[in-house]
Amino acid sequence: MKSGHYNRQTLLQDLGAGIIVGIVALPLAIAFGIASGVTPQQGLITSVIAGFLISLLGGTRFLIGGPTGAFIVIVAGIIQQYGFDGLLIATLMAGVILIAMGLCKLGIVFKFIPYPIVVGFTSGIAVTLFSTQMKDFFGFTMDVPSGFIPQWICYIQNIANINWIEVTASCASLAVIILWDRIIKKIPGSLAGIILCTGISLVLARYAGVNLATIGTKFPEISGGMAFPSPKLPIVSFQTLRGLINPALTIALLAAIESLLAATVTDGVTGKHHDSNAELIGEGVANIVSPIFGGIPATGAIARTMANINNGGRTPVAGIVHSLTLLLIYLFLMPYAVYIPLSCLAAILIVVSYRMGEWRTFKYLLKGDKPSIAVLLATFLLTVIIDLTVAIEFGLILAIVLFVRRVMQTSSIEVIKDNMVAASESQEYNPDDTEMLDIPEGVEVYEINGPFFFGLANKFEEFDERIHKGAKVRILRMRQVPFIDATGINNLSHLCDRMQKRGVRVILSGVTPEVRKTLTDFGLDKVIGNEYILPHITPALAKAREVLAGKHDVRNGKKSL
């Protein structure tokens, strides 16, 4: 995150980028605040405080922090169930969790979250955000329930109450935002849409007597301006605190995933490298301080970050300037925000939801294998119908189960027939190190391919039933076994016991140092006998001939007298 040489040119670039990004963030902060169920000034406060701290303490040079669309549904749900004070405590708890994850060096873990899960919940949040904006887009005045399905039932039941003036304003705002972004790149369409639509709204109110729903009609208290809030901590009961653990985990996970994904994208664009653990700590501090001043959850925002990079931002100074720009707007321009139409904010968030959803990637992943499709659709549908926490938990569990199943399919136990050509037991094939296997009568050789773990249990039981009458020695060839877990050790131990009762000697061949260490740690080397754990098939077959010749007792670990 640190820069080597900071000069006047870099400062000017950061100042210019920071001011532009601050202006870009203004309509988004207001829209995200209102859509989350809080006031527009609380959205701005979050951008000011969290944006400053994430840039100052985070692990990237370019990331811009603040409230994002991904949090809207989560924040609204927490407020509905636990109240605004509950949201503040959950956000603060999430900040502590993020710092703990950073200190424990868990930043790397988030890189291993399966991509279908990320796309599934991102697209699901986009659909849910789109659904929440239909009330203001169509000018409905009734109370809308939470939940995707109840919301659309409510919309359909009230379809006769659509306010066509508000719909016209919403469509006009949507058209301005989309067309402006295609024509003019430097000034964001969301800002242009707010300025133009607010002007039209004022003209209609003054000369045509048409009054659109505005921020002022919903939050009349901000018309006189707002002072910067004083820090304070809400008081909640212990019972409420216990209930906030899951919401706090959800906020922490989403903040970590979204910010680290944004940081990874910036690495690809700029060629720099971020510190994921420092980023988690910075996010954590931001989410602890922000609620103390009445702010809502915050994370790295990819759209604002890209605007920062595209406008010349080079260091965290640009992010700090962005937050200071928003602070000035908060202190001196908030009274003018009362004239912004809610229909315009709904249009902005509809565009945000469309851009948030990774629809091309979603369609592309549907062409993949069935396990990936199952994880994608399960995460997407659960995000939309239930909530993000359940979606991520179920998606991860399903991904793990399908992964184990796939590993099981790659692991196998095969019978080696007589006169097979055996290559070196080492991982590298050496054509000069081959020989014809001469498997004597009474000896069975089985080759285990793949990890010897719990997923191989069923196949191991089937293999155990294959013992032929007259067999005195069973050689397990383990050159392709990279590791063995506790279940594998348990299965192998039971096999030795059963074989001993049947009078069959067990010999291990091609045991790697890693597997041998595990056998020793669990004491299985003493059960089998060290002289029967061999690095190559050739000495294993020689040892088997000794057993057949009566030089060794077939019972594990004992020589005949």
Write a short abstract of this structure.
The chain is of the alpha/beta class. The protein is built from 23 helices and nine strands.
Provide an overview of this structure.
This protein has 561 residues and is of the alpha/beta class. It has two domains: 8-401, no CATH class; 412-548, STAS domain (Transcription Regulator spoIIAA). Helices cover 61% and strands 6% of the residues. It is built from 23 helices and nine strands. A five-stranded mixed sheet has the order 3-6-7-8-9, sandwiched between helices. The protein has a two-stranded antiparallel ribbon with strand order 1-2. β6 (443-449), α19 and β7 (473-480) form a beta-alpha-beta unit. α1 (8-35) packs antiparallel against α2, α11 (245-270) runs parallel beside α13 (302-310) and α17 packs antiparallel against α18. The longest helix is centred in the first third of the chain and has 32 residues, at 72-103. The chain is elongated, with a radius of gyration of 32 Å. The protein starts with 7 loop residues before the first helix and ends in a 13-residue tail after the last helix.
